[in-house]
Amino acid sequence: MAASLEGLPLELSTQIIVYLPLIDRLALRICCSALEKAVAASDLLLPRDEITIKRSHPGDLSIQIGRIRVHADSLSELCRFRRRIGNKISAHELIVARNETVDSRVDDFLADFLEGCEVNVMSIHLHGEPSRNFREYIMQNSNKQMWMKLERTSLDEELLRSFLHDADIVFMSPAFTISTDLFLVLLKRGDFIYGAPISSVRQMLEIAKIYSDTARDDQHISFGVGSRAFNEFKIEVAGKEEWSWDESRSDNNETWTNECGVDVSEQPESEKITLKLHRF
Amino acid sequence: PNVKLVTSDNEEFVVDFRIAKMSVTVSRLMEAMNMSETDDASLLSNSIPLPNVTKAVMARVIEWCEKHKNDEPKEEKENDKRGRTTHVVSDWDKEFLKNDEFGRLCQLMGAANYLEIKGLFNDISQTIANMIHGKKSDEIAEMFNIHCDLTEAEKKEIRKKTAWCED
After folding, report:
1. Is there a contact between A17 and A42 (Cβ–Cβ < 8 Å)?
2. Cα–Cα distance list, A139 to A54, A133, A242, B163 (Å)
3. What residue spans define the domains of chain B?
4. Which CATH architecture describes the domain B2-161?
5. What is the pTM (predicted TM-score) of this model?
6. Which of A60, A132, B40, B54 is 20 to 30 A off residue A142, Cα-Cα?
């Protein structure tokens, strides 16, 4: 057995390096080519840390791995760097922040960068359509805990249905409505759903009924509908025994409740009228 | 019951069956040789050859195993406050390893790997990682007497490519 760090077989040196944080790995890489290779071959385990990705400008990617911030103008250089700092990277959470501009090339590099990264939680803000490779990456991780914000993107029903665990889904300025059928799938999965884009108050009432029967006690759901919707809703429920105006609410929002424990309230601070359902 | 282990330099160690079982490699060999705890004859008539371990290293391995033979199985890897993956090295283990120079640690690590004694292997890996942790590359190179085969240009290139990493 060679009694030098650089002479250790790869199976041993990688097991030492697995205990080293990124900053130590960077120092080790410059010692010699054998250690540079050993760093690249060892897993980087950061079970409490986050990998945060920001795509602020076209062709630009800024990444934070744990406490280390990585910036590079060249995307291919970033991916090369990724391959040299560890084989598999395990972290607690992947956060992909809102991108200012849609750039499928950056998305593709992102998917490339994230190859071999394993996380427990994925928080992704999709602003515009994801590239095919990035979408594939998300689908491959459908067994993770998902938090997803959708903005200016079309309804990707297959993607939303693919998540294996209850997810948090936020709909921001969507140009589509979701079907009651899909809503039911998300509801039964136990998702928290915010700003669900629905077509009508009638559909909302239908969903409210399903919600009353199936949702968990702590499962929150809100709908995003047009500004006339709340008035429509009030007309719709007026005179119906199961709905009543809840005067006891301490907040300023006008709130209606039904006998099934569903609570519908107006959220005036929102641009749209938001009808929020939650058990009380 | 006792088990006989024979090192590469033909030294025979007679160890308790429980200690022999702490090594996955030895366990497998005993199984292959039909040696069982309840069959004294099989234990007396056979010895386990360990051609990758010397007498001196075997003595250290057995000392470690003696101390840990009653340990409960535990989750090996834990995380420190900053999320760094660590293996908790007990005070006894720190004391056990503290006087070993790096060369001996490597030999012990190689033996722990060959014998598949995970606890000892992780103790040594973490101990060496602790020696590296927080040091600059030239300090690491000096501490481990590393012969650097990178040219100044190559080093400069690696530094340049990681210059945008900020802690």
Report:
1. yes
2. 20, 10, 41, 34
3. 2-161
4. 2-Layer Sandwich (3.30)
5. 0.80
6. A60
Closest residue, chain B, to A1 (C-alpha)? B107
Q: What does the pLDDT look like over B39-96, one tens digit per residue?
A: 777 778 889 999 999 999 999 999 999 999 988 876 655 555 555 567 888 999 999 9
Calculate how close chain B gets to A15, using CA atoms only, in Å.
6
Residue A106 is which amino acid? V
Q: Is A28 in Cβ contact with B137 (below 8 Å)?
A: yes
Does residue A267 contact residue A257 with C-beta atoms inside 8 Å? no
Q: Nearest chain A Cα to B76, which residue?
A: A19
| pLDDT tens string A94-117 | 999 877 666 777 888 888 889 889
Measured between beta carbons, which residues in chain A are less than 8 angstroms from residue B165? Answer: 22-23, 26, 68-70
pLDDT reported for residue A206: 83
- Domain segments of chain A: what residues? 1-42, 46-277
Of residues A5, A20, A66, nearest to B133 (C-beta)? A20
For the range A133-142, what are the long-range contacts, defined as Cβ-Cβ under 8 Å and sequence gap of 24 or more? A133/A107, A133/A108, A134/A107, A134/A108, A134/A110, A135/A159, A136/A111, A137/A110, A137/A111
